[in-house]
Amino acid sequence: MTIPRSVLIVILAAVMAVVVGVSLTRRLADTSADGVPGALTSGRGVSIQLSDKPIDAPALNLTDLDGRVLTNESLRGKVVLLNFWATWCTPCREEIPMLVALQDHYRDQLVIVGLSIDELPAADVQQFAGEFAVNYPIVMATPELQEAFGGISAVPSTFVMNPDGKIVQRHLGMLQARRTEHEVRVLAGLPTEASIESVRDTGQVLLANAAYATEIPGVDLTGRTADAKEAVLKRLNTEHCSCGCGLTLAACRINDPTCEVSLPLARAVAQTP
């Protein structure tokens, strides 16, 4: 007997929810006496790193698949996870139950926004979200929206916003449940045992901060005067890579040190008298 795809997806989602429920461990406390949500996981041994140069989120004027409007102002006051994903992306599917659990538990402190890069009709994406019991808004991410976030070259990609509307972290690849929960707790001002570190951000956290980088992967700037080095860095942060990423040469090197297009271009700039 052939099991319909929709049934398989529902079964898969249920199994994944159980697995994620186990990985999140037992609830340490649903809520305290004062209504503050307890942690789903222990923060012990978890390291939270936040950019030392938070940046304002791009202007948002989004309409989700249920017709609700989301703007920077409407999201202000809560921690926000902007999660770029796709229905065909296996890691994206695998992290959905964890995101559902976090949105449910931290409903008063957190808003997750799923930004789908699918080229499927919106109705198909909405059906998929329903089959996975997604409880947070889903938006079809236009090319313009993706470009506003520096270009989305891989999914899942998640941008973490603090309650003031500033982006403080970016995660490429599947989210880690404990780290993600305690990022939410730190930014929401909830108690946590996680360690918190402000990291010097030269583009490795947020590409928009690549202009602060003084070292570019694969480019040797030793032996140059301060003025000459500054001139090279200015060009690397102005001229764009031709690999199709849409980034400056500096940002491309930082984002993808294996890029074979940006390396010779950046080195040629560095060798310019």
Q: Layout of SSEs?
A:
Blueprint: H1 5-23, E1 47-51, E2 55-56, E3 61-63, E4 69-71, H2 72-75, E5 79-85, H3 90-105, E6 110-116, H4 122-131, E7 138-140, H5 143-148, E8 157-161, E9 166-172, H6 177-188, E10 195-199, H7 226-236, H8 249-255, H9 262-271
Parallel strand pairs: 1-10, 5-6, 6-7
Antiparallel strand pairs: 2-9, 3-4, 5-8, 8-9
Major sheet: arrangement of strands: 2-9-8-5-6-7
In total, the number of strands is 10
Biggest sheet descriptor: 6 strands, mixed
Spans of at least 5 consecutive residues whose pLDDT stays below 50 are 1-23, 25-29
How far apart, in Å, are the first and last alpha carbons?
72 Å
Mean pLDDT across residues: 85
SS-derived structural category? alpha/beta
Q: What is the helical fraction, as a range of percent? A: 25-40%
Binned strand content: 15-25%
Q: Could you explain how this protein is built, in words?
A:
The protein has 2 domains: 5-27 and 41-199, Glutaredoxin (3-Layer(aba) Sandwich); 213-271, no CATH class. The model is unreliable at 1-23 and 25-29 (pLDDT under 50). With 273 residues, the chain is of the alpha/beta class. The chain contains 9 helices and 10 strands. It starts with a helix and ends with a helix. The radius of gyration is 21 Å and the shape is globular. Helices cover 35% and strands 17% of the residues.
